[in-house]
């Protein structure tokens, strides 16, 4: 082998050795970079921007449970960058996800300000030292589902009760055909159950109409005096039977824009509730306060009152704070729900104040409008005219008896 060949062989061996060393160096550098990433607390590029754009609660935490990035809504749950996770349940969920290396989900109750909220939380490990937590508040969804379940359950029960009673009473009338007194008794009870069934179906239809997307069609300038008087009149028989006086007070001559029938039913339902839950001999007050912007109609009783924990649900369909009392009084559980939706459809609101043993006050607030010109004219009092002397009556002559 001459010198030229030896030089070529040496060059080839050197290239192979150099290439091997370069490969080893490249592998070592990649392993170092991977170790740096694994031990780094820096977020991937753009991750912070994604978090800031999220409407849901989302936070990134390190291995010790400290928050290194958060979306804007996370602050509502007390999750602030640089602070530890505020809830033990969340910390346990993060540990479980880090231990398995798989996403973990759970339904939890977390505190948002002063209230507990029902949430679903999902934890995903994004690097060996960082984990992503996404939280979705399902409190309202759960509440709606509970209302739906209550509605189906209670509607079924409420409809079955009068239907079953009507069936039994019809059979009883058939069996007592030879006893006129019994027939009259059963017929009266049958009529009462039929009326109850009719009231229930009517209220379900009214509530469905109020909850629909259709606008109210019978809008006009409504006299609050007319609404209050009609509402009181509709409950006068029940109040007299219960020995309860309904007293009307406050401002007169107020007007609102709305459907007079819907408003009358709403105020009538409040008066009916006050009568039903007041002791015999009590008073129910219906007061009106008005200014240029707002009209308030307050219905007050001195009855059993409503516990504080029940007050948030009192306007739900078929919900009753006192089940036994409601069944004795023949209530449908829809009255207050109708009130709420009727007033909301008029752009107003209903407020409740109640204390057990001290009674309740329901206050309806509606936007006031100026009295129509014809109403102002009719409201002005005319001065009474002096009676005229009858014409054609001559004065008696002197000495004559008048």
TrEMBL record:
Q: Where is the Histidine kinase domain?
A: 154-370
Q: Which residues cross the membrane?
A: 6-29
Q: Provide the catalytic activity annotation.
A: ATP + protein L-histidine = ADP + protein N-phospho-L-histidine
Give the EC number(s) under which this enzyme is classified. Answer: 2.7.13.3
Q: Which domain of life is it from?
A: Bacteria
Stretches of Basic residues bias are at 379-391
Q: Which PANTHER family match?
A: PHOSPHATE REGULON SENSOR PROTEIN PHOR
- What name appears for this protein in its UniProt entry? Sensor-like histidine kinase SenX3
Organism, by scientific name, is Microbacterium flavum
